[in-house]
């Protein structure tokens, strides 16, 4: 069973791959567009303002290396913003920076989907390795229970990505609302922010869809309903 060289596999996950290509192109174009729309603060200053207004004066903001490397680190309670996002007074910068501040606010307020997502991090991290080990062992020993166990491990990755979706969309919704409420962007800026954050949201949807299709493909392999039977 040469399932990992199966051309059917590529065909099966291709909708997700196409959606991902489309979303990444959208991120690229909206990022560039938003970089040409002015905001009243730099990304770092906007995030600082939003955090302070939420009583999170103790959450730090640092500059990170790498394009689109922006993230919130819950272990150290610090926002790490890429060079462009940190320093420029643009819709793109304040949109991304405030999205990350939104994660810090979720963290501080015990936002339930984030709690579940963080609890699922080990499942996402070790799921793929566990899956391959159990799947190959299951194939070698012709053991259905081992393969099903492997599939369950892969399901952990899917679970993580699914619960991550509301976390990402909520952080973006918070960013859109706060930037307008605090008058950090005007009407044109708000549209540019929405474009960037929605495009980023689609990349998470595409990645989740890809994992779902992989999961279904492996399930079909294990339960013997593949098309080349
Ligand atoms: Zn996010």
The total count of strands amounts to: 3
Mean pLDDT level: 93
Secondary-structure element string:
HHEEEHHHHHH
Note the quaternary state here: single chain
Q: Determine Rg (CA atoms, Å).
A: 20 Å
Q: How many separate helices?
A: 8
How much of the polypeptide forms β-strand, as a percent range?
Answer: 5-15%
Total tally of structural domains:
1
Large-scale geometry: elongated
Estimated helix fraction = over 70%
Low-pLDDT runs: none
N→C terminal distance: 11 Å
Strand arrangement within the widest β-sheet reads 1-3-2
Q: What profile does the largest beta sheet have?
A: 3 strands, mixed
Walk me through this protein's architecture.
There is one protein chain. With 229 residues, this protein is mainly alpha-helical. The chain has one domain. It is 72% helix and 6% strand. The chain has helices at 7-34, 43-53, 83-87, 91-108, 112-119, 121-140, 144-181, 187-222; strands at residues 60-64, 71-73, 78-82. Strands 1-3-2 form a three-stranded mixed beta sheet. α4 crosses α7 (144-181). It is elongated and about 65 Å long. The termini are close together. The structure holds zinc ion (ZN). Zinc ion (ZN) binds at residues 99, 103, 168, 171.
